[in-house]
Predict the 3D structure of the following.
Amino acid sequence: MYIYILSEMRNPSSLSAAKSQIVTFFKELPSNSFALSELKNYLFDNKTKLKLAPSTSPKKFIEFLTQERILQLAEIRFPYKRFIRYVKPECSVLDLAASLIKGAYFSHYSAVHVHDLSEQLPKTIYINSEQGEKTRTRVVLKQRNIDVAFSRPWRTSNNIAQYKDCNIYWLNGMYTGNLGVIQIPYQDAHNILVTDIERTLIDIAVRPVYSGGIFEVLKAYKAAIPKVDLGKLLGYLRQIGFMYPYHQAIGFYLEKAGLPSHRTEALKSFGLSYDFYLTHQIKSKVYSQDWKLYYPSGF
């Protein structure tokens, strides 16, 4: 861990003389957020290009960048890990979050936002780095176990960091081999990793608590209807192999969003052996006979 104490530079130096070149250099970089190691590499690889003295140290370089407000220091504290980044003034929280964990991807409500499936501007960011692959133990599902599990509150992650007016959730989701994760350009975050529309629809049905709640999930489904590839979505469900029958919730959402019932029949082929729940702790329940699913009255 490196801590830099900013000190006032008393005399003109090759850094101040090269300010315009340094400003242009960072403006032309595609990234908006940098780790300390990246800044060191940029310095060592570009001293000649930037016309800096060979003796220019990383410490002085970073002091100069922050003093001149070319970059700003950003500290992200999760309960068990701290990240230090140096960011351009225009760097968004989404852009910063994208730089934190190698291989992590945006999911749930963040993916909804990236795919333009909501009009909301969420103040919570969800990044997901999957757990390692584990040997699955075959579990015989019982109706009583489903009833008990969904009568309890949602279990949510406490791996949260605050930055400015946003919360950043760092999720450790179940292993899927990054199924349905794509790399796309997105506004000022440039290329980001995010779940595609089909995987996003699955994730938000499974965890509406990370997706703005069931009403926001339904809005996202309505917006996704013209774009969704049902064959791909079904393929993802087969590959993931959930223990609980989440396909019943997904089919219900799709029909509520306006998809004709004949197009959702394939989801019923996964089985309708259990009564299921759209969300946890439903106080006033209505039952869908078609999907064998309880959902809140007024939904």
Observations:
- Residues 14-76 form one domain.
- The chain has two domains: 14-76, 92-243.
- The chain is about 35% helix and 20% strand.
